[in-house]
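At this stage, I wrote out one protein's amino acid sequence and its backbone structure tokens, and that material follows here:
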Amino acid sequence: MKSHLPSHGCHGAGGAHASDGGTGRDPNMSLKPYGNLFLPREFGTNGCGNQSPGGNAGGLFFLTIGNALHLDGILSVRGQDGNPSPSGGGSGGSILFSTVQFTGNGILDVSGGSGIGQKTGGGSGGRLAVYVKSQSRYFGQYLAIGGNAGDAGNDLSQASGGPGTVYIWEFLNQIPHNRLILDNKKRPFSHFVTLNESRGSYEFDEVHLTRKASLHMVHNRKQLNLTIHKILGDGTGLIHVHENQFLIAEVKDARRTITRAQANFKLDTNSSAMMSTVVHMIGKGDIAFNWRGRLINVMHLHLAYGRRAFIGIEAHTGTLKIIDLYLQKEKEHFISQLWSLAASPKWIILHPTECISL
């Protein structure tokens, strides 16, 4: 096994892995993501030079540990910076291990390398998956950051590398618990992670989105389901639901629940999202809620102070009556006009199963 080689003609682009590599000389050319979120076993991809490969890709580390792992040092398969100049950075590789006990305060790093020189891209972050057969006592860092653009002035553009993925599976209170962690280093939402494994549904106990991290399911027009029991982060992240996809976000088996999910949401036409009966949109993006699909189960939708929402003419709601966890009845309510809303001075409170008037 060896690192993936970049495509011909990708001069200066960063290597891809968990997400796109940063663009190089051709802004329309970027290397596309691959690999498995849950069982990463792929090398990274070399960055692109002019006549030769750029930065070397990150390697591959996987290990099954019979009892305990204590890590106070650095375990790294990060991609290397571009070399020679000008060239793109290599993408991060893969770390996969399982252990009974996991302790320490070290660093696990699958980040991408940076581009070197003008019009060069950073490498994508790689993939990291940790399986702990008890409650993890590791308090160190998980790093899966895309590499910097070669030109520092372009780092908040497609020239930087996209984020990597961190997946952690452990036991909490003797119950299996999993979480997905994404960090986009304040780069644009066009850098995103796609759930592209060949499965029809995904379920996470926690999803952490920080510094404008964006999460999608693969946009193939097939029916796909994503369930997230708790959304955490700094409020700058985005969850984007595409056509024929269904999101269940922070829904509990109770008549009345409240959520203040730390993310922005985008529902495309013909997508659906089921959320708590009371939802406070507190995302810090330019648009906290971009609504063109179907919103289910929400009786009261609150837009926090200073936030903006876009409601398209395709947006509609559905109310559910749930008995013994089985769907018994659904009613559709359509929005007859297009709205662009901003909360001022304190709150705009939308009751989406009723008429909206401003």
